[in-house]
Design goal:
Spore Coat Polysaccharide Biosynthesis Protein SpsA, Chain A, Jelly Rolls, about 500 residues, alpha/beta, about 25% helix, five-stranded mixed β-barrel, 11 helices, 29 strands
């Protein structure tokens, strides 16, 4: 029986899906598939791979490789899945997918030290699949193919539906083996339109999905052969790792400085594209299951539920005499008249209007935001925190108003501010408040004042969410004016 470990690569910021996707809350944590699911793309990816088990396949704990800053977003969404157990590998900085997979391979070998060499299923966290049964069968074929051939790698190739110029292609052999796997002859970079049309007409070229199956030992051996610099640096980072647990989850942190020194490279460039004709036979199983990587708003429109006029509508939106458009309303009514082929995305602090055929260029807006140092690139007005969230509802000269929700059993850090005072009013639940030397309990409609420079903490010891209104006043109201003395979440 094969021991199979799912590996979810949960990095990236999804800049082409701004303003909904931002670096502080990227697209993999959003509900975008348009299939009626209430699960995020990340949750769908985890659930899809964890459905692959059968009488011949035993699943190990899922490994999630993600950014240190996103660990509590991952935990919150994993809790909703309930039956999935995961270990989180936390990257201090982004170094592309080859180092991420290396951390997962080292971890898989450690977790299964007394068992057989584990087989890894590697999948990005930000794709959609419409046909779960076809996906599961294709993955099972990949696993059988890896079991049958030493050092084999098996990739999922997507049946192309159009001459797409935004994907890499896989050239396959004419026939397949007993496990429905073709031999990969070569990988092709993103083509121009003429070449893409030729690939589509030939029938022997498929899109590269970025999902594949191999043994942990195969990846590490191939990486050591093709990119020994990445292997050595990754091994050093793994050897310098630390491990801890919080909220019932296990965290593995590679050495921070060692990880930063790893060359940034993708899985494909580092290893996969070098494998055809090498000692690492690379195979491909074809997948025709309604796959989409949701790389831009046009892709979200394609997978969304279109009305009779070809419109995909989300939230409070009213349309008249409009067609072939995507309208996403987050916080208010959006009304549109007489439009065609547009993307309109509204959030509390930003609105995007784009021609749907040019939606890839949204990344240029994000580049401008970054150059101007604007916070709209990174965070929404409503910001997720490990203890809950806050929403900056109003601000002006020397004041800011926030709505804050604290999860049951959670607390903010014990902290102080050099430049601001705060007034807290409880609107829902019961608050335990540390204010200097005092610890008090406040209920609905009760309030307290936190002087500038005073040590304080807000906690929810109850079983229901706590909500307060916070009014800040002072000469500087930035989020970096926080001195933490104690913190449940390791931020002090």
């Amino acid at each position: 029986m094969a021991l199979v470990i799912p590996v979810i690569l949960c990095g990236g910021s999804g800049t082409r899906l701004w303003p909904l996707s931002r670096s502080g809350f990227p697209k993999q944590f959003l509900v975008l598939s348009g299939d009626g699911s209430s699960h995020s793309l990340f949750q769908q990816a985890v659930s899809r791979i964890n459905s692959v088990a059968n009488s011949k396949i035993t699943l190990g704990n899922t490994l999630v490789v993600t950014n240190e800053d996103h660990r509590f977003l991952v935990l919150d969404q994993l809790r909703e899945l309930k039956s999935v157990h995961a270990t989180l590998l936390l990257e201090p900085v982004g170094r592309n997918t080859a180092p991420a997979l290396s951390m997962a391979a080292f971890c898989a070998e450690k977790l299964s030290a007394d068992a057989q060499d584990p087989i890894l299923i590697i999948a990005p966290a930000d794709q959609t699949i419409q046909n779960q049964a076809a996906f599961t069968k294709a993955l099972q074929d990949c696993i059988a193919s890896v079991e049958a051939t030493e050092k084999a790698i098996c990739i999922l190739g997507i049946t192309p539906s159009a001459p797409e110029t935004g994907y890499g292609y896989i050239a396959r052999s004419a026939s397949k083996d007993q496990n429905n796997a073709y031999i990969v002859e070569r990988f092709v970079e993103k083509p121009d339109l003429k070449k893409a049309q030729e690939y589509l007409a030939s029938g022997n070229y498929l899109w590269n999905s970025g999902m594949f199956v191999l043994r942990a030992s195969t990846w590490l051996a191939a990486l050591k052969e093709f990119r020994p610099d990445i292997f050595d640096a990754s091994h050093n980072a793994w050897q310098s790792k630390s491990e801890d647990s919080a909220d019932g989850a296990h965290f593995v942190r590679p050495g921070k400085e060692e990880f930063k020194s790893i060359p940034s490279e993708s899985i494909d460039y580092a290893v996969i594209e070098k494998c055809p004709g090498s000692a690492y036979p690379i195979k491909m199983v074809e997948l025709d299951a309604g796959w989409n990587d949701l790389g831009a708003w046009d892709a979200v429109w394609q997978v969304g539920k279109q009305d009779s006029d070809g419109n995909v509508i989300s939230g409070d939106a009213l349309l008249t005499n409009s067609k072939n458009s995507l309208v996403h309303a987050t916080s208010r009514l959006v009304s549109v008249v007489g439009i065609d082929n547009l993307v309109i995305v509204e959030t509390a602090d930003a609105v995007l209007v784009a021609d749907r055929s040019n939606s890839q260029d949204v990344k240029n807006i994000v580049t401008q935001l970054e150059a101007q140092g604007r916070e709209e690139k990174n965070l929404h007005r409503k910001v997720a925190r490990p203890w809950g969230w806050y929403d900056s509802v109003d601000e002006g000269e020397r004041f800011k108003v926030k709505r804050i929700q604290v999860k049951p059993g959670a607390s903010l850090s014990l902290q102080m501010h050099h430049h601001r005072a705060e007034h807290w009013i409880v609107v829902k639940g019961v608050a335990e408040i540390t204010n200097g030397d005092q610890v008090i309990t406040l209920k609905e409609n009760q309030s307290t004042y936190i002087p500038q420079g005073q040590t304080h903490r807000l906690a929810n010891r109850g079983s229901e969410p706590l909500e307060i209104i916070e009014v800040q006043s002072g000469s500087y109201l930035g989020e970096d004016d926080i001195v933490r003395f104690e913190d449940t979440y390791g931020r002090s």
